[in-house]
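Exercise 3.2. Students should predict the tertiary structure of the chain below and write it as structure tokens, then compare their answer with the key that follows.

Predict this chain's 3D structure.
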Amino acid sequence: MLNQIKLIGHENAFLNLVNLHKKKKLPNKIILNGKKGIGKFLFATHFVNYVLSYDENNNYNLDNFTINKDNNSYKLFSNNYHPNIFLVSRKNNKKEIDISTIREMMRFQNSSSLNNKIRFIIIDNVANLNLNSSNALLKSIEEPNNNLIYILTHNSESKIEDTLNSRCINLKLYLNNDNTKNIVNNYFSDNVYNLIPNDFLTYYSSPGFLISLIIYANENSLELPKLTVEYLLNTIIQNKYYIKDQFIYENIRVFIELFFYKNLNFSNESIFQLKKYFYLKFNQIQKYNLDIESYFIEFKQKLLSE
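Answer key:
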């Protein structure tokens, strides 16, 4: 969420990096580790803006952890045109970060800087690297440039190569419930958090997920306060949104887990075993890329029609 100019909930971790930078002890390979949707990429963009805007007009406001939208570095990065920043992420809805993107990154790494400022390579979600791109990245970071900083984000729910992890300094990020509420309300400039049904509010509900859920509900004319996970799953399955909609595609596992979390019944052994069967089967479908449509047909017949 590059358009989010205020950083909430990660202030202490941010100040730790700022202090290391001021002491000229900032590691040149950093992994920002934490749950999906808590703002790791946002954290990286704020820190990069703090460093690069330091001697610019409208520089980063460290007193309230805010980017100034009139800052030149912010404008350049927003348009993916900053000469000191190279962003590595999935392109054109691809499932992985392929080797061609890493080769572009290496050309940036080996090129001459147009100024004397630090250059940054930001890799958004290292779990998206395939085997070839991961190996190329490992080779690249083993040949460090004194004026180059790698900042990698990693969703703690996914695996990361031990060889990559061991070459970087890990910074763990987390948010409490109050942070999540403040971030959601700040994003919409409204007290919308209190409208979110309990079906979707758990310890694991990140602000990124909740913000996307609210946007999805608004775009599809769903009445948020009355929304249930059962109704949402019925709508998703009926319209095959698990194929058509990017937010649903990326979070279908979350909705299924929320459904089981709400409806888990240990007192009825047959219902418990049925739900266990569907939960384990979904894991196999995702792992081996099996037919998901037939799974959801059966899921709706046996679980949502109860």
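Discussion points: The first strand starts at residue 29 and ends at 34. The chain has a mean pLDDT of 91.
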